[in-house]
Structures are given as structure tokens and as C-alpha cells.
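Hello Y.,

Per our agreement to keep a running log of every chain we model this quarter, I'm adding this entry. I've kept the format consistent with earlier entries: sequence first, then predicted structure.
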Amino acid sequence: MPLRDHFRPPVSLQAAWDALHGMWPADIVRQLRTRLPQGYVAAPTVHPGSAAEVDVATWERDDAPRLRPDGDRGGDAPAAWSAPEPSLAVETEVPDYDEFAVRVYDAERGRLLVASIELISPGNKDRPEKRNAFVAKCVALLQRGVAVSLVDVVTLRQFSLYVELLQFLGQSEPSLGESPPPLYAVSCRWRPRGERMLLQTWSHGLAVGQPLPTLPVWLTETVAVPLDLESSYEQVCHDLWIT
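Predicted structure for the entry above:
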């Protein structure tokens, strides 16, 4: 079955995009359960940024130290130090942190993270600072030896975070052409090559009306399992009554 546009009618009237993103990781985990070798486990991670906030101002430990009134330093305690005026003081907004992902761990090596499958949300793409934060997270994972897969079905925003990841690393993929597809699925990994590192990617352009590909999920330098995006996607669409 083909990829739908989950951000416009009629599909958006059947189920919101975050319903797809919320359920898809769990179905990917069910699929991987039958394909991961012994000793490996997968778990979904779903964190819609706008749904969870921590009010730091209302959280205070009872045993936290407090200043004494009227400058009373309690005996021979040193005088309080006053910080100078800041060199910059501007109002900023902390972006919401969206995460819809599946993590794969090697349980026999202390639950070592070996692969991450990231379902890109509209919030990951809507502003430069959010795109930069997402790309930086993926690069940090790659530097730790974690294989990273990106799946982008967000039709509302045309940015390619895969292209921005390559640009962050000073690289490009000529096969993408001058107008890289805004929808894509790609697996990436860094592996040692002598004294340097070799970046390898397996990329596929996506299009509404076309089936989704199968990606390799790398567990070690030589072992990968298939991630059949089409079957997990269709199962979620079926469960959400999306035609």
C-alpha cells in the first residue's frame, strides 16, 4: 500500500499525525522482536515536547541551603560573593523537544545502545534551532558508534534533515540531485577505516502514493537486521482506521 499524506485531508481527518507517530515505534518494536539476535532488545521512545513540562520554580528540596537574613553568615563563614552584571541578558524560548523513536540495545553488554530509529516530527523541522538540535543529536549518536535511521513523512515542511546532517559533516550525496526529496528514509553509520572513519548511508526518497522501503539496522560492523517500514506502517494505518 502507498504512503499517505497524514498532514492534509482526507487522511488528517481520520487520524492526527501524532497518532501515527505515537503508535509506529511500538509496531517497529514488535517487528524487531522476531528479527533481533539473542541478546538484543528494542524499546519505543515517545516524547511529544509540548505535552511534558517541568516547573522548576515549584520544585525545591527541603534540605537545600538557604541564605540567612540580614547578612548573618553564621560565625566565621566567608562573606557572600556577588556576581558581576551579565554580559548578555535576552529573553529566549526553550524549544519543545519532540522525540518519536525506537532504541535498540545490546543487553549482554550492559544495555549498550547500538541503533536508533528516528521518526521525524513537524516540530523537528519547523525552525533552524530545532533542526540544528536534531542534527546535533544524530551526529552525537553516530560519534558514539550508534547506527541512526531517519524516517521523514512530514509533508508540511520541505527541509531535509538528512541533507542538513550531511552538510554538518561537510559531506553531500550527489545522487540526491539539486533538489533532494523532502520525504526520505535513510540509515547511517560511522565505522573505522584505518585511522579514519567511514560514513556509510543507505538512503531512499519517499513519495506519497509509493510504498516504503526496507532499511538496514546495524547492530555491529558486520551484523544488520531488516527494518520493513512498509509492513509496520500499514499495520499502524490499519489499527488507526486510516484507509
